[in-house]
Amino acid sequence: MTISIPLAQALLGQVKNALDGGFLYVFAGPVPATADAALDMVGSHTQLAKLSVDGDGLTLSAPVGNVLPKAPSEEWEGLIEFEGANAGAPSLSPTFYRFCAAGDDGRGASTGVRLQGTAGGPASNAAVLFSSDVMTANGSNSTGVSIFNVVADQAS
C-alpha cells in the first residue's frame, strides 16, 4: 500500500490537531513495545526532561509534503530533572521520547494520543537526537531539540 501526498497531509493535519499543546517527555530505560504501554517508574524507567515552550505546550507546523515539522519559531526546551527508577543517578542516557497530548504525562497506560520514538546522542540512529549521549541532572542543566519531524511513510 502507498499513500499520496494529499492523503499524507490530511492525516498529518489530524496528528497536528491532536498533539498541538502537548509536551515532549524524554525517558531513560527500555523502550516500551507500544506508546500505550505503562512505564515502570519504580523499577526501570526514569523521566529525564519535559520539553515545552516556556512551560506552555508545543506546536507543530502545517504539513509540508509527507512531513509534519515543529514550529520553527519555537524553542522546545526543558530542565533536566530525573524522576523515577534512577532518580538519584548523576547522569543517564536518553533512550526514548513520548510526545503526549496535554494532560498526559506519558507514564501510565493510555488510549490517548501519543507518539513514541527512540532518543539518543548525536551519533545514534535515534529519531530524536540530543547534543550529548548523556544528560546530567544538577538542578540547572537544560536540554532541547531544534528539529522534530513526524513523517508519514509512503512506502508499501
Sum up the structure in keywords:
7-stranded mixed sheet; 156 residues; 31% strand; mainly beta
Walk me through the structure.
There is one protein chain. The chain has 156 residues and is mainly beta. The protein is 10% helix and 31% strand. It has one helix and eleven strands. The strands form three sheets. It has a seven-stranded mixed sheet, with no helix packed on it. The mean pLDDT is 93.
What order do the strands of the largest sheet run in, or round the barrel if closed?
8-7-6-1-2-4-10
Query: Assembly type of the shown chains?
Result: single chain
Cα-to-Cα separation, first versus last residue: 5 Å
Question: Given the helix and strand composition, which structural class is it?
Answer: mainly beta
Mean pLDDT: 93
Element-level helix/strand string? HEEEEEEEEEEE
Shape: globular
How much of the residues is beta strand, in percent?
25-35%
Rg calculated over all Cα atoms: 15 Å
DSSP helix fraction: under 10%
Low-confidence stretches: none
Counting DSSP H or I runs of 4 or more residues, the number of helices is 1
Largest sheet: 7 strands, mixed
Total strand segments? 11
Give a nutshell description of this structure.
This protein is mostly beta strands.
Q: How is the secondary structure organized here?
A:
Elements (H helix, E strand, L loop, with lengths): L4 H15 L3 E6 L17 E6 L15 E3 L6 E9 L6 E2 L3 E5 L13 E7 L7 E2 L5 E2 L5 E4 L3 E3 L5
Parallel strand pairs: 7-8
Antiparallel strand pairs: 1-2, 1-6, 2-4, 3-11, 4-10, 5-9, 6-7
